[in-house]
Amino acid sequence: MSSSNGPDKSTGQYHSMKGNVVEAVGNLTGAESWQTSGKQEHAEGETEYKSAQAEGIAEGAKDEVTRANRLVEISRKKLAKLRRKRTNKHNLKRANVNVVHI
User: Fold this and answer.
1) Which of 22, 68, 61 lies closest to 45, judged by CA?
2) What pLDDT digit, counting tens, does each position of 39-84 carry?
């Protein structure tokens, strides 16, 4: 059912719909094997579709976590830069005060 890359929504929808058609033919003709086969293919298609949806949601969440981590790292670098500037200004003021009092 699924491709080598994992579940696929389109493939899942295809098998779900095909299973419905096969089951309907089985219902019309009274062929229990077609009914059973159709139900099974429909269920497998729905499972593949839902698996692909879940995989997409998980991938999206992973991307958001990666983005958040990048933002945290950028913020940390900016904060460190601001602290260095503040320390340098403070040291410069102390140096000026010491020079004036000498």
Assistant:
1) 22
2) 999 999 999 999 999 999 999 999 999 999 999 999 999 999 998 8
Element (DSSP H or E) covering residue 91: helix 32-101
Ordered by start, the domain boundaries in the chain are 38-101
Residue 62 tokens read as: 């992973």
Angle at CA of residue 73, ends 70 and 78, nearest 5°: 125
Cα separations in angstroms, 86 against 75, 76, 77, 91, 98: 16, 15, 14, 9, 18
CA–CA dist 43, 26 (Å, integer): 16
User: Is the pTM value of this prediction over 0.90?
Assistant: no
